[in-house]
TrEMBL record:
Residues 59-86 form a coiled coil. The keyword Nucleotide-binding does not apply. InterPro entries: Homeodomain-like_sf, RD_transcriptional_regulator, Transposase_8, WH-like_DNA-bd_sf. This is Transposase. It comes from Streptomyces pratens. Gene3D superfamilies: Winged helix-like DNA-binding domain superfamily/Winged helix DNA-binding domain (1.10.10.10). Keywords: Coiled coil. It comes from the Bacteria.
């Protein structure tokens, strides 16, 4: 069984907010708070996952959706290019 955390939930929340709002690296903020940088980094990642921050890699389903949308954009750009060429061809003077 894991031992209880020496940090209160209030301290944890304040530390995460300080790390997110600060322009300093997480390791620097952790040193100022006299704690392990990896502990604070883990808390920040967990907070970002729970509160919808997407600074990290996209989830698998979002990556698949993005890939499909990028494929569709390429397809539409190809069709658009073809239609522009066809319109230019038929717009030529029939002399």
């Amino acid at each position: 069984m894991a031992r209880p955390s020496p940090y209160s939930p209030e301290f944890r929340e304040e530390a995460v907010q300080l790390a997110l709002k600060s322009s300093k690296p997480i390791a620097h903020v952790a040193r100022e708070l006299n704690m392990n940088p990896e502990t604070l980094r883990t808390w920040v990642r967990q907070y970002e996952r729970e509160h919808g921050r997407q600074d990290g890699p996209l989830p698998v389903d979002e990556r698949a959706r993005l890939k499909e949308l990028e494929r569709r954009v390429r397809e539409l750009e190809t069709e658009n290019s073809f239609l522009k060429k066809a319109a230019a061809y038929f717009a030529r003077d029939p002399r």
